[in-house]
Amino acid sequence: MADALVDLDDVLAAYDPAIGLEVHVELNTATKMFCGCPAVFGGEPNTQVCPTCLGLPGAMPVVNGKAVESAIRIGLALNCDIAEWCRFARKNYFYPDMPKNFQTSQYDEPIAFDGWMDVDLDGETFRVEIERAHMEEDTGKSLHMGGATGRIHGADYSLVDYNRAGIPLIEIVTRPIMGAGERAPEIARAYVSQLRDLIVALGVSEARMDQGNLRADVNLSLAPKGTGTLGTRTETKNVNSFRSVERAVRHEMRRHAAVLDGGGSILQETRHWHEDTGVTTSGREKSDAEDYRYFPEPDLVPVAPSREWVDELRGTLPENPVARRARLQADWGYTDLEMRDVVASGALVVIEETVAAGASAQAARKWWLAELGRRANDAGVELTEVGVTPAQVAAVQALVDARTINDKLARQVFDGLIAGEGTPEEIVAQRGLAVVSDDGALGAAVDAAIAANPDVAAKIRDGKHAAAGALIGAVMKEMRGQADAARVRELVLEKLA
């Protein structure tokens, strides 16, 4: 039976939402957090395991130094304090994809704490406070077989793949975000999106939500309007797209309100997000920290990063993605809408590289968002996987600027690039795509077009120069798009005006 829902306007009239986000980031280290097994995606099940990540008796863990370095850089980028001394803890609970029956994590002594991130939302800035960013290991993965949905409900049996068990994770936890009102769902989405941009800029993770490199848990509670308190929260687990983060917050706001309006109380629980239906369903009752029986990990020494090392890592931080976008927008002269389209399509980096290779910002945007964006969408791949490089796009535009080809012919050059036929110049030569600028050939084509369209010619002779477009179109068609349109126009007007 579907949960009752309240109209969002009615929710906001009666309640104040509070959101909290826990984002798990899989690091791109070569090996796992506490052993030497490869930390790669997509291997055959249970082939990237060893006694340590399987939790076999007598196996001893060792901390991955690169993972500690990445954790510190993430913390610094989030304006956090970096602990001078911290340690790992055992988080005890039974779960079938936890081979040790505990997770090695950090509890009361995280490596980074008390930070913040300013989230930009249509020109308005919201400060999201970061409570902590701590190191831990990922779990394995349960595969539910035989059912129609891939979920445990309805499955015939389950298998466990431990390849992911032990992959280094950084969990970034916000403090409750209050006072957002109707913008709470948008802020949740913008925060996760901006955080992903930061992680990618740092180079510490691929941060691909479709591969589980970055996963968001969405906490939501409602309190009676104006009380300034926090209600009982629910946690929607493993939401794997920006759009779904926003939808999950909105759905839970409406569901909580229906329960509260009906005189019920909210159960503190984890919930599952269903992408196909846009609803959440109950998972398990949410445990409090004391239920996990945390205690210090006896097999690992504390982590004590020196202040000199922290300062050295601070110097490696990249330009903040928000500041970088603002700088590039000013340099390129894009409107806010144009820049939003660039960011949303994932074209920022390729456009930047295309401009650096010599193309104008407007030309780079035109090719990547329109022509190449369409091709990527048709092929179901990312822009970077479409088969054309920024340098090649700039080279194609240079041929357009030189009037060697026009935009229509450039599309055929992109066909050749994707097919691996050589450089843009070689493709133009091999396919015979160069624009015809010879006055003899063009003049003959113009004469033929005038003879075939006497009514249009008469309008041009009468001073209606806009009618020249029809004759230009006829010439372009006759010459298979390879005529120099600007020169054709000049010839038409010379002959008739």
Radius of gyration: 29 Å
Helix content: 25-40%
Give the structural class.
alpha+beta
General shape = elongated
**Which spans have pLDDT < 50 for at least 5 consecutive residues?**
none
Separation of termini?
76 Å
Strand segment tally = 15
Overall number of structural domains: 3
Furnish the topology, listing elements before pairings.
Layout: H1 8-14, E1 15-26, H2 65-77, E2 81-82, E3 89-92, E4 102-105, E5 112-121, E6 124-137, E7 141-145, E8 157-161, E9 168-174, E10 177-178, H3 184-202, E11 214-224, E12 234-239, H4 242-261, E13 269-274, E14 279-285, E15 295-296, H5 307-314, H6 321-332, H7 336-344, H8 348-356, H9 361-379, H10 390-401, H11 407-418, H12 424-431, H13 439-452, H14 454-461, H15 468-478, H16 485-496
Parallel strand pairs: 12-13
Antiparallel strand pairs: 1-9, 1-10, 1-11, 2-5, 3-4, 3-15, 5-6, 6-9, 7-8, 11-12, 13-14
Account of the 3D structure:
The chain is α+β, with helices and mostly antiparallel strands. It folds into 3 domains: 8-314, no CATH class; 321-431, no CATH class; 439-496, Arc Repressor Mutant, subunit A, CATH 1.10.10. Helix content is 39%, strand content 20%. It contains 16 helices and 15 strands. It has helices at 8-14, 65-77, 184-202, 242-261, 307-314, 321-332, 336-344, 348-356, 361-379, 390-401, 407-418, 424-431, 439-452, 454-461, 468-478, 485-496; strands at residues 15-26, 81-82, 89-92, 102-105, 112-121, 124-137, 141-145, 157-161, 168-174, 177-178, 214-224, 234-239, 269-274, 279-285, 295-296. Helix 3 runs antiparallel to helix 4 and helix 13 packs across helix 16. The longest helix is centred in the middle third of the chain and has 20 residues, at 242-261. The mean pLDDT is 89.
